[in-house]
Design brief:
Oligomer: heterodimer
CATH class of chain B: Mainly Alpha
Number of domains of chain B: 1
Largest sheet of chain B: none
Strand content of chain B: under 5%
Order of helices and strands of chain A: EHHHHHHHHHE
Largest interface: A-B, 72 and 75 residues
Helix content of chain A: 55-70%
Distance between the termini of chain B: 31 Å
Largest sheet of chain A: 2 strands, antiparallel
CATH superfamily of chain B: AhpD-like
Number of helices of chain A: 9
CATH superfamily of the largest domain in chain A: AhpD-like
Number of domains of chain A: 2
Number of helices of chain B: 10
Shape of chain B: globular
CATH architecture of the largest domain in chain A: Up-down Bundle
Chain lengths: ~200, ~220
């Protein structure tokens, strides 16, 4: 069995961070949709994900995909207590901006804008980078996400203190930690298993 | 590994049952449960595939070491030590020292972000350890270093090097999930430890004091 990577010489990868909708092309052959078993469907969690080359590629190891997806959903979609959705998406966007994942940043900056109604501020984070000065609360969430993304990890008592000064309680701080940490997982998969394609509009 | 740990993140972060952090983690019960299920899927898989336990623990030890989280490194190294020759653990520890840099760095596609390109090393396993580790594990470690420090430099060529060294397409998915999951787990642990330390200073009730003592003993504050 000869296995090889896939490449797309005609693709023009996006060269800037954007809130527009991008596509994504896999560098390895996704699992064949027609061969999906019960275990693969369980790994995909939502049947609609069988249409996505990203999730079909990850479905090659379905058990870790299933656990990953359920971790992701609870961190971002469980709205009982804790941080507002917009600010969880801000943590995801800041993490993706720091790691350099143009695709992940596009998806989660759109969500941050959708929930916060602050598209211009979100765009400044994309355009100016993670040192952007937005406001006390967003600055603290961005800085916490970025210091947690650094290797070695720079996040510590200073960032906890800054989050508290900005008005976050411990339950909200746990959501920042979970959100930024999760995007250190997601960014690495998206960046290393394929490449983004330009917005449909361009 | 036969040792049953009900929640690895709690164990590594020093979270005690009924403590305030225990209750805080429970506000996201599915995330908590599935972070543990992720650990099990990667380190005690029901369907092991072709990535061996030694490979999984060797790469995990390397990744934790690159993050300079000594207690996490020791946790994975303990399992590696049980599975493999002691010289394997020694080789991984010497590669951690060799590969430790700071990230994230890397290049963007040529364009307006090029001014943000940050150069950094392209890590190679030392000549001394190449034979001891074997070409498949050498390729795995080199790819893990790319994912930890400069994931935006990833490329089809990097994946081709894994395929050429004997990793199948499915093995590459497992390896990528393993390194990416650890990048998550290690950060949750570091974040919760920081919060435990900060909480203990503010509010020294019995639960917090216990956590704080544990954090002090680990030397992270």
């Amino acid at each position: 069995m000869t296995e090889t990577t896939l490449s797309y010489p005609e693709n023009r990868e996006p060269t800037a961070f954007t809130q527009e909708e991008l596509g994504w092309l896999p560098w390895l052959e996704p699992f064949p949709a027609e061969q999906l078993t019960e275990r693969h469907w369980a790994g995909l969690v939502d049947a609609s994900r069988a249409k996505s080359p990203y999730f079909l590629l990850l479905a090659r190891d379905p058990d870790i995909l299933q656990a990953r997806t359920k971790t992701d959903k609870d961190i971002f979609y469980n709205t009982s207590n804790g941080l507002p959705r917009a600010e969880r998406e801000l943590a995801a966007t800041a993490t993706s901006r720091s790691n350099g994942c143009i695709f992940c940043a596009s998806v989660h900056s759109r969500f941050a804008t959708q929930f916060s109604k602050r598209g211009a501020d979100v765009q400044r984070l994309l355009d100016e980078g993670v040192d952007v000065d937005i406001d006390g609360r967003w600055n603290a969430i961005v800085a916490a996400s970025v210091t947690l993304t650094d290797t070695p990890i720079e996040f510590g008592s200073r960032q906890i203190e800054a989050l508290r000064v900005a008005g976050l309680g411990d339950a909200e701080i746990v959501d920042v930690i979970n959100g930024a940490s999760f995007f250190n997982w997601a960014n690495r998969l998206m960046l290393s298993l394929g490449e983004p394609t330009p917005p449909v509009s361009s | 590994m036969s040792t049953i740990i009900s929640d690895v993140i709690d164990r590594l972060a020093g979270i005690q049952p009924e403590s305030s952090l225990d209750r805080l983690r429970d506000q996201r019960p599915q995330a908590r449960e599935n972070a543990q299920r992720s650990f099990l899927a990667l380190f005690e898989p029901e369907v092991p595939g072709h990535v061996t336990a030694i490979e999984r623990y060797a790469i995990a030890t390397f990744v934790a070491g690159l993050h300079r989280q000594a207690h996490v490194t020791d946790f994975y190294a303990a399992s590696l030590q049980k599975l493999g020759h002691p010289r394997l653990t020694d080789a991984i520890r010497s590669e951690i020292a060799r590969g430790s840099v700071t990230g994230p760095y890397g290049r963007y596609p040529q364009g307006p972000l090029t001014v943000e390109d940050e150069e950094g090393p392209e890590y190679q396993v030392s000549a001394d350890n190449r034979e001891r580790l074997g070409s498949r594990l050498v390729a795995g470690l080199q790819h893990a270093h790319l994912l930890v420090f400069h994931p935006r430099d990833a490329s089809p060529a990097a994946l081709q090097r894994l395929l050429d060294a004997g990793w199948s397409t499915t093995d590459v998915v497992t390896l990528s999930q393993l390194v990416a999951f650890l990048s998550f787990q290690i950060r949750v642990v570091a974040g919760l430890r920081a919060l435990a330390g900060a909480s203990a200073v503010e509010n020294a009730d019995a639960d917090h004091t216990q956590i704080f003592t544990g954090v002090l003993a680990s030397g992270t504050v």
